[in-house]
Amino acid sequence: MVTMSVLVIVLLIAGLAFYLFVVGGQLKKIATNLEECATLVRTIVGHAQAIEPGVEHINRTGGVVAGALPLLYGMAEGIVTGVTPKPAQPPVRPPARPASGRRRSRLHEGVGYVVTGAQSSGAAHGDP
Q1: pTM (2 decimals)?
Q2: How does DSSP classify residue 100?
C-alpha cells in the first residue's frame, strides 16, 4: 500500500511537471510576441511624431471649412431656388367621353323594327 501511494504521488508530480513545462513554453512564445509588438509600437510612435504637426494643421483647416459650411449651404440653396423653373400648371380637362358618341342598339334592325326620327336619338329608351 505504501508503495502504491508513493507511485501515485510520483505520477502526480510528473503530471504537474509536464503541465508546467507546456505552460512555460506557451508563456515564452507569448513573451516573444509581446516583445515584437512593443518594438513595432515604438516604430509607429516614431513615425507618428513626424506626422503630428501636419495633422494639427489639417484639423485647423478642417475646422475653418466646417464653420463655413452652413453659410455656403444657405447661399447654394438661394441660388438653386432662384434658378429652378416653376412647373407649368397642366390644363384642366373635362372627363373623357367615348369617341363614338351615344350608343344605340342594333337588335331592333335585326328583328325588323326600324327606329326613325326622335326615337333614333335615344328617346324611345327613356333617355333624355
Answers
A1: 0.38
A2: T
